[in-house]
Amino acid sequence: MVPNKLGNLYGLCASSLRRPQTAGDSWEITESVGATALAVAASRAVETAGPRPLISDEFAAVLVSSAGPAWARLADPEIAWLDGDRHGQRLHRIGCDYQAVRTHYFDEYFAAAGEAGIRQVVILAAGLDSRAYRLHWPDGTEVYEIDQPKVLEYKASILAAHGAAPATDRHAVPVDLRDDWPAALIAAGFEPGRPTAWLAEGLLAYLPSDAQDRLFEMCTELSAPGSRIAVEAFTMRIDGNRQRWNRMRDRLGLDVNVEALTYHEPDRSDPAHWLAEHGWQVDSIANHQEMARLGRPVPDDLAHEAVTTTLMWATRSVDDS
Predict the structure, then answer these.
(1) How far is CA 168 from CA 108, 120, 130, 171, 212, in A?
(2) Which domains does the chain have, with CATH numbers?
(3) Could you confirm whether the keyword rRNA-binding appears in this record (predicted)?
């Protein structure tokens, strides 16, 4: 790592990441990005309680239900809160299926990273991700979770209250990605000289294009040869998602408005191309292909309303710093 270069990258990224919210602001778990973390966890709870789950996240339901009764209803595997609205139920089910598929994809990514000998993991914008608690990590693995302080506090306190403990060494890094997160990460014990498995799941849509690229630059600068990075790249389908968010508001009184928090820039760089051009070997798949492969195909009549993303992971094979 080159400290001066990293410092310059941080300065550029911090300015790019600043949203219309007040500088230095934070969020409660039921507000803004906290609400999106709860909604994603609710989808994992729905999947886990289903008849043939692709994933097992036994912590999702308690994390969601602890936020209040309306959130607990959102985690209902029968989606009974949409009774009488068949189209809404189908649309919401496809959304839950997608969350299950992407979770499965990134779970497998971490398993492969562990088999490759990587023992340092960084989850960017970790939200209510419970992988540090539920995955089978090789001995000696350290997991660093970066997110808003109140989100990390909520997760840790709820799980501790229910007797859950991390399955490996978990390091909470309570810092906003708009601030100097590389310094906070290193202060928490992260070692740039060790290969790292990074994860940017459910994150890039919340960054403007230049901030996305700066984030990749900083991850690259902090990555030793052999490091890996996994990414979810969005092509947001607003209409179908807006219908789901409106139903959550109208039926449950929940304000989950992802559209207001995300960027929709047509000229943003493609993450796979960016990574390939900066020393990473990339493997990717369209989410609809992965959903079909895992037995959760998107029905033809809902294809225009379903989320479209690319799931990818890449390996840094050369040291080009």
Answers:
(1) 17, 11, 12, 10, 29
(2) 32-316 (3.40.50.150)
(3) no
